[in-house]
Design a protein that fits this description.
Number of strands: 0
Strand content: under 5%
Helix content: 40-55%
Radius of gyration: 31 Å
Shape: elongated
Low-confidence stretches: none
Region (Disordered): 46-74
Length: 74
């Protein structure tokens, strides 16, 4: 909110102008929440209900073959 002069309280023109400016800045955020808020809450709820995800299995470490790769052998 804009810096108000001394003594500018609710009902004064300076206060109302600053409040109007503040509300104008907030409308896009309120509109985003109104449009997408339910989806965000649904995603949050689904992830909480899903529980912990299983850990990835440990893959064996690959080692090179003795003797290396032989391109001439088929």
């Amino acid at each position: 909110m804009a810096q108000l002069p001394e003594g500018a309280g609710p009902g004064s023109e300076a206060y109302d102008d600053a409040l109007d400016e503040h509300h104008a800045e907030c409308w896009s955020y309120l509109d985003d929440w109104a449009c997408h808020g339910r989806a965000i809450l649904d995603i949050h709820t689904a992830t909480r209900r899903a529980g912990p995800q299983p850990k990835r299995p440990q893959l064996p470490v690959l080692t090179s073959r003795p003797g290396g790769y032989r391109a001439t052998r088929r």
